[in-house]
Design a protein that fits this description.
about 450 residues; TIM Barrel; 4-stranded mixed beta sheet; 16 helices; about 15% strand; binds 6-O-phosphono-beta-D-glucopyranose; GH; hydrolase
């Protein structure tokens, strides 16, 4: 028997640009995702995505049928404030207001991410997050959200995967952006995002009774061997990838190991007088985090080369380089699968920060097949979740205060850089990278299985 509380938030996640489509409908402005120029061959853009904007009522009804207790989604900044600053788009407010009401009608708790990789184009034009004007713009945007939805939303997330935007900008923000920006600018942008997140947190506490937290991608880091050098590599990578992004919001201090890496790479950013006070004040109520896999590193060797995606390919000269873990299997898209590592990550988070934790993403991207009978037999997805739940329950048993689990994703949606063919949902969306068709929805086998898990509050995961 496990100790899952009665009000545990069994949920599922999506993000606006990957799910909504309607990229220029009803006054929406363009975001950096809408203006991305190069997509890998055979990979769709984000113009239609899963067309949730035109299916939202049907989608919420499906979520209710699935039995979701919570739905984590993001709001498109450019739907609310098309130019990033200035005029508010009433149509955008109306869309999310209706969505929130519809969710509440079915007792589904909305968990809203304020910003998930889709900075307004107009802000990108002035340098994006490297420009401190973005901090004020975000604070103002957060104010508009809290004014309009703060009465109905209990949980907010400020920024999704701030660490991945800094660590692998090419995967998340596109090749052009990554090529334009130096390491120092990247971490200046990161500092400015921390400030924006802290200001939104302060505002949320002033204006509402809601709870708010960040949503980085956090994972346990293994040394490749028991050599002291590899252990040093693991300490450095863990600090740079994980703790840098939580020590600051939670304790108001910059992680020294991470700063040392930046200093050695001539990438130390500017901190203005008053910044640290704001950062100390904006404390989260909980930690949201995304978990897909663990990472293994060894001491950096100069001759090596490596490509990048969110889960692998990290390297920092003289500190670490990421390597495969032979103990783990891989998904069809090459991501290592580590359910035991989920438990380790939860325990590490708990012991380091002593805050309630919300899992905001976890899941498996696969080439799902729609059969002629309209079925999707995704047994591999069921097994992936079964294995993760086993260790999640053990972590809770060992004292981790996990209050919700929102896997990625509720519905199929367009991956950050690998198109719609990389499917994550419990609900299949019938379109391909080349043909958007009608985006008809189909329940996968994992839908029935997850429904049973939720109905039994996690007692029946067979
Ligand atoms: C996280 C993001 O990086 O992982 C999501 O928050 C993303 O936006 C998810 O979709 C899975 O990654 P990918 O690259 O397979 O879409």
């Amino acid at each position: 028997m496990h100790k899952i509380k009665k009000d545990f938030l069994w949920g599922a996640s999506t993000s606006a640009y990957q799910f909504e489509g309607a990229w220029d409908t009803d006054g929406k402005g363009k975001s950096v995702q809408d203006i991305k120029k190069s997509f890998p061959e055979g990979v769709t853009d984000f113009k239609v995505s899963s067309d949730h904007y035109n299916h939202w009522k049907e989608d919420v009804a499906l979520m209710a049928e699935l039995g979701l207790k919570a739905y984590r989604f993001s709001i498109a900044w450019t739907r609310i404030i098309p130019n990033g600053v200035g005029e508010v788009n009433e149509k955008g407010i109306e869309f999310y207001s209706n969505l929130i009401d519809e969710l509440l009608k079915y007792n589904i708790t909305p968990i809203i991410t304020m910003y998930h990789f889709d900075l307004p184009e107009e802000l990108e034009k002035i340098g994006g997050w490297t420009n401190r004007k973005c901090i004020d713009a975000f604070e103002n945007y957060a104010k508009v959200l809290l004014e309009n939805f703060g009465d109905r939303v209990e949980y907010w997330l400020t920024i999704n995967e701030q660490n991945m935007m800094s660590l692998v900008p090419e995967a998340i923000l596109g090749k052009e952006k990554a090529e334009q920006i130096s390491l120092k600018e990247l971490y200046q942008a990161n500092h400015n995002m921390f400030l924006a997140s802290a200001k939104a947190t302060i505002l949320c506490h002033k204006m509402t009774k809601a709870k708010i937290g960040p949503a980085p991608n956090i994972t346990t880091i293994y040394p490749n061997s028991n050599s002291p050098e590899d252990y040093y590599a693991a300490i450095n990578f863990s600090a740079f990838r994980n703790w840098f992004f939580l020590d600051l919001p939670v304790y108001g201090i910059y992680n020294k190991v991470a700063l040392n890496i930046l200093e050695k790479n001539n990438a130390m950013f500017d901190i203005l007088p008053g910044d640290m006070e704001i950062l100390k004040e904006g404390k989260p109520d909980f930690i949201g985090f995304n978990y897909y896999t663990t990472a293994t590193v060894k001491m950096y060797e100069k001759k090596e080369n490596n490509s990048s995606n969110q889960q692998s390919g990290a390297k920092m000269e003289n500190f670490y380089i990421q390597t495969d873990n032979p103990n783990l299997s891989k998904t069809q898209f090459g991501w290592e699968v580590d359910p035991y590592g989920f438990k380790n990550t939860l325990i590490e988070l708990n012991e380091r920060y002593h805050l309630p934790v919300l899992l905001t993403e976890n899941g498996i991207g696969a080439y799902d097949k729609l059969t002629d009978e309209g079925k999707i037999h995704d047994q591999y997805r069921i097994e992936y979740y079964q294995n993760h739940f086993k260790y999640m329950f053990e972590a809770i048993e060992e004292g981790v205060e996990l209050f919700g689990y929102c896997p990625w994703s509720a519905f199929d949606l367009v991956s950050t850089h690998e198109g719609i063919k990389k499917r994550y949902g419990f609900i299949y969306v019938d379109r391909t990278d080349d043909d958007v068709k009608e985006c008809k929805r189909y329940k996968k086998d994992s839908f029935d299985w997850y429904k049973k898990v939720i109905d039994s509050n996690g007692s029946d995961i067979a």
